[in-house]
Design brief:
The chain contains eleven helices and no strands. α8 crosses α11. The termini are far apart.
Amino acid sequence: MIYPDAFWPGALGILILVAGIITYRRDFQTSSRDTFGLTALGPVFVAASLAAFAGEHFSSAAAIASIVPKWISAPLVIAYFVGVAHLAAALSFVAKRYIRWSAFCLAIMFGLFVVLMDLPAAFTRPAIRIFWSLAARQAIFAMGALALFATVTRANQPRRAMMIATIARFWTSSVLVFYGIENILFPQFAPGVPSTTPTATWIPLPTLIAYATGILLVAFGVAMLIEKYASAAAARSGVLMTLLTVALYVPQWVMARDVAQQVAGINFVFDTLLFAGTMFVIGRAITEATNVTRVPYAAARSV
C-alpha cells in the first residue's frame, strides 16, 4: 500500500527524474564515459531530489513546519513556500530555462538553512554529531547550486567561475573527508551521507560496505586537494553515491511496508541522489573553470 505522505514525494521525484533524463539525453550521450556518462546528469539528479522534497513539503507540511525555528513567524507558510521553491528550481533545471537565476536562488536558500537552522543547532548541542553533518550537507548543496550558476554563466564571467570552482573544490574536499571518517567511525549506520539510522538488516556485509565507503570518500576528498585530480575525484564520489542509491536505498524504499518506512526510504534515496548530483555538478564546474576539457552543459536560455 502506498500512503499519500509517501506517494507525492516519490511520484514527483520519479517524474522529474524521467523528464530530466529525456531533456539531458544529448548531454548524456556526449559526456565522458569515465563516469558512465553520469556527470551530465548532475542537474537532473539535483532536480529529481528537489522535486521529491517539494512533495514532502506539500504532503507533510505540518510536520516540517514544526522544525522551523520558533522565532520565525508563519512556519506553515514557510514550509509550503520552501516546497514551491524546490519544485520551481527542479522544473527550471529539467526544462533548461532560467537556470542561472534558479541556481543562484537555490544556493541562497540552502545557505539560509545552514545559518538559521543547522549551525545554531550544532553550536547549541555540539556533542550531537548529526547537527554538524547536516550543516556540512546543506552547505555543500549550496556550493553545488553556486557551481551550477558558475557553469551556466562561465562564458560571461570566467574569473568568477574560477573563484567559485576553487572554493567549491576545497569545501567539497573537507566534507568528503569528514563524511568518510563518519562512515568509518560509525559503520553501524546507513553508509553514504551520514545519518543516525542503522543499516537495514537485509544488506549483506554492512560493516564492510561502511568501511569501504568511508575509505573511498576520504581518498576522493584528499584527491580533490590536487587540482589535476579534483574534477575526477568529485565525479567518482558522485558515482559512489549513485551506486549506493541504486543498490541499497531504492530496494529499501521498495520493501518499505508502512508510511514511516516509505518516507524514510524516499529520504534516503533522494538525499543520497542529491549528494551524487551535487558532486557531478561541482566536478563539471571544476573541469570547465580550469579548462581541463570543454564539454559544457547544453545552453540554458534565460532572460
